[in-house]
């Protein structure tokens, strides 16, 4: 995420597309390298997700990536503090495992 003149417009467009299309699942990658956020980068998309995600998605699973490869993490151990993790979020919030602040913790 570059701190550039169109950053807010691009984030706003992405948010609008996600809200309009309501995908059945979202793959969220945590880790600095996934977003390449700079201190001057607008945080609109992160602030939006922290409010929107838990209302519309539930945690469906996660995997952890490291230099030896990738492995599945049991659903009960998926949490936001995992570095370099991929979280699969499924549409609908009626399931037993909603997206919680803990699973959102290191989105940014």
In short:
The protein is α+β, with helices and mostly antiparallel strands. It has four helices and four strands, in the order αβααβββα. The protein has one domain (7-104).
The biggest sheet amounts to: 4 strands, antiparallel
- Spell out the helices and strands N to C: HEHHEEEH
Q: Give the strand content.
A: 25-35%
How many H/I helices? 4
Mean pLDDT: 76
| Strand order, sheet with most strands | 1-4-2-3
Tell me the total number of β-strands. 4
Measured between the Cα atoms of the first and last residue, the distance is: 11 Å
Main structural class: alpha+beta
Low-confidence stretches: 94-98
Number of domains: 1
Q: Classify the helix fraction into a percent range.
A: 25-40%
Radius of gyration: 14 Å
| Shape, principal axes of CA atoms | flat
Structural summary, described in words:
A hairpin with a 2-residue loop joins β2 (57-66) and β3 (69-73). It is flat, with a radius of gyration of 14 Å. The protein has one domain (7-104). It has four helices and four strands; from the N terminus they run αβααβββα. Strands 1-4-2-3 form a four-stranded antiparallel beta sheet. Mean pLDDT is 76; it is low at 94-98. The longest helix is centred in the N-terminal third of the chain and has 15 residues, at 7-21. The protein has 108 residues and is an alpha+beta fold. Helices cover 33% and strands 25% of the residues.
């Amino acid at each position: 995420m570059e701190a550039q003149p169109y950053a807010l417009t691009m984030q706003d467009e992405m948010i609008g597309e996600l809200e309009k299309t309501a995908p059945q699942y979202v793959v969220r990658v945590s880790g600095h390298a996934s977003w390449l956020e700079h201190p001057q980068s607008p945080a609109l998309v992160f602030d939006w997700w922290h409010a929107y995600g838990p209302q519309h998605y539930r945690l469906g699973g996660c995997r952890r990536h490291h230099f030896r490869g990738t492995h599945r993490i049991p659903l009960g151990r998926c949490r936001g503090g995992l570095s370099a993790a991929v979280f699969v979020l499924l549409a609908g919030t009626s399931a037993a495992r909603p997206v919680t602040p803990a699973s959102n913790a290191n989105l940014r």
